[in-house]
Amino acid sequence: MSRFDVDARIQVAVIGTGAGGATAARVFARAGLDVMMIEEGGWLRTASRPRDAAGALATAMRDGGTQATTGAAPFPLLQARCVGGSTAVNSGIIWRMPENVQQEWRERHGIGWLLEEHALIRAYDEIERDLEVTVTRESLFGGNAEKMAEACAALSLPGKAMVRNAARCEASGECLQGCPGEARQSMDVSYVPRAIEDGARLMENARVDRVLFRGGRAVGVVGTLLHARTRRPTGRFRVVADVVVLAAGAIHTPCILARSGVKGRVGAHFQAHPGAAIVGRFDEVIAMSRGATQGYEVPMHERGFKIESLSLPPELLAARLPGAGNRWQRRLEELNQYAQWCGHVRMEAHGTVRPGWLGPRVSFVPTARDLRKVQDAVALMCEMMFAAGATEVFPGVAGFPEVMTSAAQARAIRYASLRPRDLHLVASHLFGTARAGVDERVSVVDA
Fold first, then answer.
1. What positions carry a catalytic annotation?
2. Of 194, 309, 311, 327, which one is least surrounded by beta carbons within 10 A?
């Protein structure tokens, strides 16, 4: 008799149902193979997802949104834990791989043959058709993105409407809580159900603990069944498979591999695009609750960052406002008059991800050059806010006024000597911990 509560034998096991796992499951299932998707979180049906920010974070986000790096200056690492992965809580921004990134993969990692141009374009075209990828219409901008567009016009910056997988967007501003009309084609409403229609199975609330190997080859996984609400263990499972696709994200993929006995560079080279956000107050109504959550962006690749409009639910916006007591309460009366923008930085720092007793331990410290890029991004965003007509800007930088009233004040941020803990950073773009490449000294797998 099996010691496992679930003991299955299939052709393809896919661990994780985010962008990578769900796409793999869709491809394999459409090809007629017997596929099982294994997801640590649950399937949060759109109609029953909490609409308040606190409930949404507690239900969908890993550790309720509190997962963070370790060290003297920790910052949050935002990841979802649910069917659809982080696609179920993000704003649906879609980018084709930039040429400079392709060049780096070719020259540094030797996997250029995986990047055959015509094959990539065919894949991009198909995905963009499937997921209804399109440029955000100006009518969907809302006040937050409109102000960024005004700032770009005033300062001659290369701003543009975002490309998102939400052609039917209704500008409800509720991407975090789950698109109420399912216009955003996140994996939980697109590739996961389509894979199931093609015969794939889904095992939710099932945490993979380790990969099974035989003769140096992955032949399955074992893990723990979890109670949907309490997250306590309820049993054990084993899935034996001809093919194992490990797509558990940049934090948990290396931890699973390490627990499975894989050595070498597993969990090394962790990288991220941490972002710093600012808030601006305007005399007119902005109403972040209307419009695409993220509709406009300013790529500043030559300076190492990208600026994005990023609307917040009222509860989260209130936490960003300066002051206390009556002064803070008066600002609450003006909630419709604030805009928030975020600058994501392409950092050169490398960190590590290691399994720990209480969960993954992620170490990441920005370099001095990384911090200068963050400062440049924050200063530019402040300048943009004032160029768009803001009367006050809240930079969120230690050692500077919590409320600024002129672009001249903001420019000083660019040249200050700051430490990581002086900046309010959050990262949701996480990668690098299971590198593919030809050199086993710096790679985990080959091409």
1. 429
2. 327
Vertex 389 angle, CA 388 and 390, to 5°: 105
What is the distance between the terminal CA atoms of the chain, rounded to a whole angstrom?
Answer: 39
Q: How far apart are CA 255 and CA 248, in angstroms?
A: 9
Tell me the per-residue pLDDT of 347-359, one tens digit each, with 9 for 90 and over.
Answer: 999 999 999 988 9
Number of helices (H) and strands (E), helices first, in the chain? Answer: 11, 19
Distance CA 353, CA 258 (A): 10
Q: pTM here?
A: 0.94
What's the burial of 31, exposed, middle or buried (CB within 10 Å: 0-12/13-18/19+)? exposed
Nearest one of 93, 170, 84, 97 to 133, comparing CA atoms: 93
Q: Give the burial class of 46: count Cβ atoms within 10 A of its Cβ; 0-12 exposed, 13-18 middle, 19 or more buried.
A: middle
Q: Which residue has the tokens 């299939």?
A: 10
pLDDT reported for residue 446: 87
Output the pLDDT for position 176.
Answer: 86
Q: What are phi and psi of 75, to 5 degrees?
A: -140, 155
Residue 52, pLDDT score? 85
The answer to whether the beta carbons of residues 379 and 315 sit under 8 Å apart is no
| Other Cβ atoms closer than 10 A to 11 | 13
